[in-house]
Amino acid sequence: MAIEDAPNKRLPVKDIYGWILEHFPYFANAPTGWKNSVRHNLSLNKCFKKVDKDRSQSIGKGSLWSIDPEYRHNLIQAEEAVSLLARPGHPSTSHHPASDTHR
């Protein structure tokens, strides 16, 4: 999601962290282990590619990350599925009255 929101579809890991903090406030006070998880997933998941940065850019140390075009469709599809599940009224998020009878 962060990489897709970037104008050039590539970001350094520090900007991915920033995007996550901006969109998911929970992580502002969470233990910092989540950053290790982000780096781990970027490194091991075939969907992400490490991209050489343009030498004219001064983004600091580290690499840029992009989504491998071969897997982009899969990631977008997964994001849409999660988005549908999170909608109010979806069976997994709504209250089901029948569950009250077994208390």
Provide a descriptive summary of the structure in words.
With 103 residues, the protein is of the alpha+beta class. It has a single domain, classed as Winged helix-like DNA-binding domain superfamily/Winged helix DNA-binding domain (Arc Repressor Mutant, subunit A), CATH 1.10.10. Helices cover 43% and strands 11% of the residues. The chain is built from four helices and three strands, in the order αβααββα. A three-stranded antiparallel β-sheet has the order 1-3-2. The relative contact order is 0.14.
- Secondary structure category: alpha+beta
Overall spatial form: globular
Distance between the termini: 40 Å
Count of DSSP-assigned helices: 4
Named at the architecture level, the CATH assignment is Orthogonal Bundle
Mean pLDDT: 82
Largest sheet: 3 strands, antiparallel
CATH topology tier name: Arc Repressor Mutant, subunit A
Which structural traits does this protein have?
WH-like_DNA-bd_sf, single chain, Arc Repressor Mutant, subunit A, 103 residues, 43% helix, globular, three-stranded antiparallel beta sheet, 3 strands, 11% strand
Record the SSE blueprint.
Blueprint (H helix, E strand, L loop, with lengths): L1 H4 L4 E3 H11 L9 H12 L3 E4 L12 E4 L1 H17 L18
Pfam family, one: Forkhead
Organism: Lates japonicus (Japanese lates)
GO molecular function: cis-regulatory region sequence-specific DNA binding; DNA-binding transcription factor activity
